[in-house]
Amino acid sequence: MNKKIAFIFGIIVIVILGAFVVMNVAQKPIVSSGKISVVTTLFPLYDFAKNIGQDKVEVSLLLPPGVEAHTFEPKPSDIVKINESGLFVYTGKFMEPWAEDIIKGIKNKNVGVVDSSLGIEMMAEAEGAHEGEAEEAHADEHGAEAEEVGHEHGGVDPHIWLDFDNNKIMIDSIVKALTEKDPANALFYQKNADEYKNKLAQLDNRYKSGLTKCESKEIVYGGHYAFGYLGKRYGLAYESAYGISPDSEPSAQDLAKLIEQIKKEKIKYVFFEELVSQKVAETLAKETGAGLLLLNPAHNLTKEDFENNVSFLSIMEKNLTNLKTGLGCGE
Prior knowledge:
Layout: H1 2-26, E1 31-32, E2 35-40, H2 43-53, E3 57-61, H3 76-83, E4 87-90, H4 99-104, E5 112-115, E6 123-124, H5 135-141, H6 143-149, E7 156-157, H7 164-181, H8 186-210, E8 218-221, H9 228-233, E9 237-240, H10 252-264, E10 269-272, H11 279-288, E11 291-294, H12 303-307, H13 312-327
Helix pairs in contact: 2-7, 2-8, 7-8, 8-13, 10-11
């Protein structure tokens, strides 16, 4: 009988201790070892936060290296990580539709939540090739159709980081959140942000000058529809084999039209995406004799690139190099 009582007493003690631990986690300080814990969803946000916060922050990427962002679903351990963080930074409800449910369930009220899409003018989801200058007109004309086919993203293109001006707004949102958590280092965060934004401006100028005189102004992409913002910014036509989501397989008719278009317009290169199947891009190249070049949407990195500390800026530099080659822009 005494053993039974002792066993029951032990269970009660364990339950009480467990409850104490859960309460302690919920009240966990936002700063651990003098650094703010920042959890980001996608790689661009991870890279921005690291460059802004530097040695004042501990930044983690929720998206595992090598995983395609559109198919990612957070695990219970990810939710715990967010609850234990000082800041949770995400791209917005259109790119991470699961984020809002997690935010509603955050128990630790000290967690700062940053929707980095705030203040950014979102583009309507589009299909096919669109001249950069005509993108908005297309969206107005086909708005209802875009809404219908783009239910997953609410008819909106969520790839906002592929416009360098949008990145500056996203960076400002991160700076504001870090400053609210750590006002003593406000000037430090702002200085780092200004330096990073200056690098973005320089890269933007290289894109503008590098893509001005090209034999072709048309990007044919064997990946999912991600480069609408980039196409619009630099006046490039852009056509993708897939829709916004890489789960949307192109039909045989869609592929036939693309093959005909590549042959007719004598397009020399088809661009492919790294983290999704390359079979569509390879088919287009094989059927037309076009070459293949990587165009990286930078949602995420391969495990090897992540371990080698590849940066967002270096990805976009490589994209520019490949665009100049693929479009015949010369030096």
